[in-house]
Amino acid sequence: MSLDATISRPELPSGMRAEALTLTYVSPRSTTYAVREVTLQIGARDFAGIVGPSGSGKSSLLYLMSGLKTATSGEVWFDDFHYSAATATEKLNFRRRAFGFIFQQPFLVPYLSVLENVLVPIENPVKKDKKRALELLDSLGIADLAPKFPNECSGGERVRASMARGLVHRPKWLWVDEPTASLDHVTGRMVMDVLKSQKQHGALVVVTHDLEILEDADTVFRMRDGVLLESFAPRANARDEMGIQKTDSNGAASGLL
């Protein structure tokens, strides 16, 4: 393991901290900031949301924190593990051990059954793993699809299968990008209830356009033009009715939502 990746950070509470994360795309004529100097912290058992309009940088921020994209500058820590300073092999091993992913597209393996796709994150699955996979499929309303192949499932059913795959190994960090975008309202509510069960095992980080599905979140981060505008706790009060104070990226109260 690289020396930088093991430097202790005793002041950091259990969880993840991103410090001044920046992602730029450089062309001969200009530099575009997808994410610009974002600093935030998410607890090890938090349900956190990231919201913002299309092109705001919310998905890019999720990919930077999870290591699927490499930041132009900035640091990411998980507890005392300096993730952004780790080697490629160290990052890969950490992701395999600690992360689960649910993307906008399901990315199911076409020649594996739905059940086999769900079990992909588990090396040499045993009977208890298959039982959990089937329970997840049942909770998502698609238990009958377990023996079927992806091309026999609808788009929404494939999305739900990918959700079971992200949850099956009980990751410490579950990264979710637009989980309800292709689902109807009722199904979206159902899958969010299943995703929120992740808090029994670790943190849940959800990127979405739909603030309504984050009503139970511990913290919501709002992005625009690559910048973290504010963070707030939806559960603190009924925001629309009581006008709670929001907190900007520097931790200062900054008015009403």
Strand order of the largest sheet: 6-7-8-3-9-10-11-12
What is the rounded Rg?
19 Å
| Global morphology | globular
Strand content: 25-35%
The N- to C-terminal Cα distance equals: 45 Å
**Strand and helix order:** EEEHEEHEHHHEHEEEHEE
Could you give the count of β-strands? Answer: 12
Low-confidence segments: 1-12, 237-247, 249-257
**Mean of all residue-level pLDDT scores:** 88
- SSE class: alpha/beta
User: Helix coverage percent of residues?
Assistant: 25-40%
Q: Count of helical segments? A: 7
Major sheet: size, sense and barrel closure? 8 strands, mixed
Give a short summary of the structure:
This protein has seven helices and twelve strands. It is of the alpha/beta class and 257 residues long.
Describe this entry's structure for a reader:
The longest helix is centred in the middle third of the chain and has 13 residues, at about 125-140. Strand 4 and strand 5 (about 80) form a beta hairpin. With about 260 residues, the protein is α/β, with parallel strands linked by helices. The strands form two sheets. Strands 6-7-8-3-9-10-11-12 form an eight-stranded mixed beta sheet. It has helices spanning about 60-65, 90-100, 115-120, 125-140, 155-165, 185-195, 240; strands at about 15-25, 30-45, 45-50, 75-80, 80, 100, 175, 205-210, 220-225, 225-230, 245-250, 255. It is globular. Mean pLDDT is about 90; it is low at about 1-10, about 235-245 and about 250-255.
